Amino acid sequence: xxxxxxxxxxxxxxxxxxxxxxxxxxxxxxxxxxxxxxxxxxxxxxxxxxxxxxxxxxxxxxxxxxxxxxxxxxxxxxxxxxxxxxxxxxxxxxxxxxxxxxxxxxxxxxxxxxxxxxxxxxxxxxxxxxxxxxxxxxxxxxxxxxxxxxxxxxxxxxxxxxxxxxxxxxxxxxxxxxxxxxxxxxxxxxxxxxxxxxxxxxxxxxxxxxxxxxxxxxxxxxxxxxxxxxxxxxxxxxxxxxxxxxx
Length: 247
Description:
The protein is mainly α.
């Protein structure tokens, strides 16, 4: 009901206010708690009115369009569905050779289908994220290779004065990690900003958890280590004599 309140009253208190449904005035006597969306349906975009009033004055019907039934246990659902089908066929006076003129749906099946769809989207988003990491890692590796090429004489000079291979390797590896980590921090900051903006202006229930931030930071640092190792190793293996002669 929160969506209805935001659309009709904004930040005003809706209690005891009057709204019109099908040219009939209704007084607001209560507000339902926030429920969120279920599938493609917004559970907060609905209004509850008395049953007889809705059937006689608003909808003009003398029958129910649908009925929701809750079972005590998941195991009892098939038996309950069978009993419902038998009862409905009896109430509708349907002979054995005639098909049902009603529909019985198991919400557990819909939930399973929705979970399958969610898992598929999660997999696709994971693939997109992996491709993004790969592209970003290749970009970092290219930048570091260019840096090694431009600083060849510097590397040769450091080696000539006694710098060990491990020191050269560590230096360029740290530069790669710092580069990827800074990019990761910028991405985390941008993502948090977008989440807060969408939550404030669009009313979405966006939440940034510490776990997601740490996970993003870990992947950004790991990308720098993995894709920066080859350029760092290439720099550490340079011959000081050839490096000093490099133009």
